[in-house]
Amino acid sequence: MRTSCPGMSYLFATLTNVLFVVLVLGMPIIMMNMLVGLAVGDIDKIQQNALMDRYVLQVQLLLDIENSMPMFILKHIQVHGYRVSEPSQITQNKVGGCARVVW
C-alpha cells in the first residue's frame, strides 16, 4: 500500500478502490442510458411536428390545385354543404371482438 506520507496508511483502502472501480465502470453506462432517453423524447417531438407539417403541406397542395383549375370545372365538383350523422348501429366484430361502426 502506497501512502503520501511515510508511516501513514489509508483506512478501508480495499473498499475505496472497489467503489472507485464500480464508479468508473458504471458512470458511462448510466450516462449513455440517460442520453438515449433524451434522444427518444426528442424523436417523439420531431415526429409530431413532422405530422403537422405534412397536414399543412397537403392543405396547401389542395388549395393550389383548386386555384389552378378553371371555373367551369370547379362549378361541377364544388361541395355546397356537409352532412354529419351519427352511426346507426354498433355491432360486434367477429375477429378479435372489437366494436365496429356500421354506417
The whole-number mean of residue pLDDT values reads: 80
* C-alpha geometry: rod-shaped
**Rg computed from alpha carbons, rounded to a whole number of angstroms:** 34 Å
Order of SSEs, N→C?
HHEE
The fraction of residues assigned to DSSP E strands is 5-15%
Helical run tally = 2
Instruction: Give the spatial strand order of the biggest sheet.
Output: 1-2
Main beta sheet strand tally, sense and closure: 2 strands, antiparallel
Structural class by secondary-structure content: mainly alpha
The count of DSSP E runs of length 2 or more, i.e. the number of strands, is 2
State the distance separating the first and last CA atoms: 84 Å
- Uncertain parts: 97-103
What's the helical proportion of residues? 55-70%
Describe this structure in words.
With 103 residues, the chain is mostly helical. 61% of the residues lie in helices and 8% in strands. It contains two helices and two strands. The chain has a two-stranded antiparallel ribbon with strand order 1-2. A hairpin with a 6-residue loop joins strand 1 (89-92) and strand 2. Residues 97-103 have low confidence and may be disordered.
